[in-house]
Amino acid sequence: MKNIPVVRPGIISVSRDCFPLSLSERRRGEAARAFGDIYECKIAVENEHDMLAALEDVRAAGVNALVVFLGNFGPETPETLLAKHFAGPVMFAAASEEGADRLIDGRGDAYCGMLNCSYNLGLRGIAAHIPQYPVGTAGEVAAMIEEFIPIARALLGLSRLKIITFGPRPQDFLACNAPIQQLFELGVEIQENSELDLFASFNAHSGDPRIPGVISDMESELGEGNKMPGILPKLAQYELTLLDWVEKNKGSRDCAALAVKCWPAFQTEFGFVPCYVNSRLASRGLPVSCEVDIYGALSEYIGACVSGAEVTLLDINNTVPADMYDSEIKGKHAYSLTDTFMGFHCGNTPMCRLKKGEMKYQLIMKRALEPDSEPDITRGTLEGDIAAGDITFFRLQGAPGGGLQAYVAQGEVLPVPTRSFGGAGVFAISEMGRFYRHVLIGDRYPHHGAVAFGHIGRSLFDVFTYLGVPKISYNLPKGLPYPTENPFEG
Asked: Is 425 helix (H, G, I), strand (E, B) or coil?
């Protein structure tokens, strides 16, 4: 995925000058070898001069994600300043003691030093990733670094991201409101454009000599699902329009995400539905959110960075009918009716995440725009049931009252036919009913949620923590009430 940063980790060891420097150096080398693909800075940091030299060394090596390793107690000021002056994500980890026979000359006390390190980070207001249990052997520290990589990838992506939008949100879609200030606070740039800008650029791509090649690629991807080949030329022209716009307008940024107004005038003026193109770009790490959902695009991009794979954006759409639950889910899967719901969007989920994707038309739009004719301007959706498997539903959002908030909930898509239209799936999340009421409704979240195909909640939680998101919600287990949950209920 060209739109996703490549993480180049490096490790710097720190040493308090009243402890053996060799202890920190040796432990650093063991941790680096245990991880493998990491740049090992040979300058161990005891003071601020060492700190400056070590930073210069890792910068010259192209390191963009730093592990500060307490091989012993560590010097509080220099180790903290490493994080302050390094231009990228930073993780702190510490060495555990190695054996009962080494507790005199070979004791490092990094367990103690990690406390003072954290305190100093707080004093200076410096963000850093600290693992759940940040003290370990070389192999355990290597595992911590492995968990840090997707977190670092997301943080690097955000620092390089520009969100490009076209058009205002549709009427009555206040839920897609996007407070801009919070984006700047995250380090994200934004470029807002008119739908007319997009339309003019689309028209300028008429007859583009690259169109046949894109059509051929679409035909190959769709295979037997290419049910409406006549719409492919327009979709190919649109895809090239978006890709060229991104390349010409990223400016100082390396990465992009898009948020585009896709109805109602889009169909009458452009002559198609853009969902299939959105799905193709999402599969390449360039998410395109529907309905100018800027925070939806932001969330999708974070999910793509963390997972390293395609994501989608879905409506938290409708309940599972009781008769469907009774016949397809009850007794077969360990979920109650209110744990289940249906996720849906018109057709933006990548082909590789559908059981059997087909090019179709947007049924709801056809009812309004061409009710008495064969589908024409409403063609362009990629439809099919979403394949069963683990998922993470999540969203980072500018809160109605200001600031940021986020939610993360892990679950699965069940192997149950939706019997519906669009790109849809039967989702199950433990205690979804309570989560729906006390997080999604209670905290005023919109109906769109980003979906990653796998359980990545742990990394997402750490990313949001690193970003300083003050409220990160998740689906609480039964017996643990939400603050707003009525204690007299039931």
From this structure: strand
pLDDT tens for 223-244 read: 999 999 999 999 999 999 999 9
Cβ proximity of 259 and 297 under 8 Å: yes
Strand pairing class (404-413; 423-428) = antiparallel
In sequence order, the 6+-apart residues with CB closer than 8 A to the CB of 107 are 97
Q: How far apart are CA 295 and CA 178, in angstroms?
A: 7
Q: In b/e form, how buried is each residue of 119-143, taking b as 16+ CB within 10 angstroms?
A: ebbeeeeeebbbbeebbbbbebbbb
Is 41 in contact with 10 (CB distance < 8 Å)?
yes
Per-residue b or e along 271-289, where b marks 16 or more CB atoms closer than 10 Å to that residue's CB: bbbbbbbbbbbbbebbbbb
- One-letter amino acid for residue 386 of the chain: I
pTM, rounded to two decimals:
0.95
Q: Residue 152 above 70 pLDDT?
A: yes
Question: Residue 8: CA atoms inside 13 Å, Cβ hemisphere, count?
Answer: 10
In angstroms, the CA 467 to CA 465 distance is 5
389-422: burial string, b at 16+ Cβ within 10 Å, e else: eebbbbbbbbbeeebbbbbbbbbbbbebebebbb
DSSP-assigned beta bridge partners for residue 404: 398
Residue indicated by tokens 């585009």: 260
Q: Which of 252, 315, 277 is nearest to 198 (CA)?
A: 277
Q: How far apart are CA 310 and CA 302, in angstroms?
A: 11
Tokens of 485: 């949950």
Burial of 108 (0-12, 13-18, 19+ CB in 10 A): buried
The values of phi and psi at residue 450, to 5°, are -80, 145
Residue 490, Cα to own-chain centre: how many angstroms?
Answer: 37
pLDDT, one tens digit per residue, over 137-147 is 999 999 999 99
At residue 1 the predicted structure's pLDDT band, cuts being 50, 70 and 90, is low
Tally of CB atoms within 10 A around 200: 11
Strand order in the sheet with 288-290: 189-193, 161-166, 255-260, 288-290
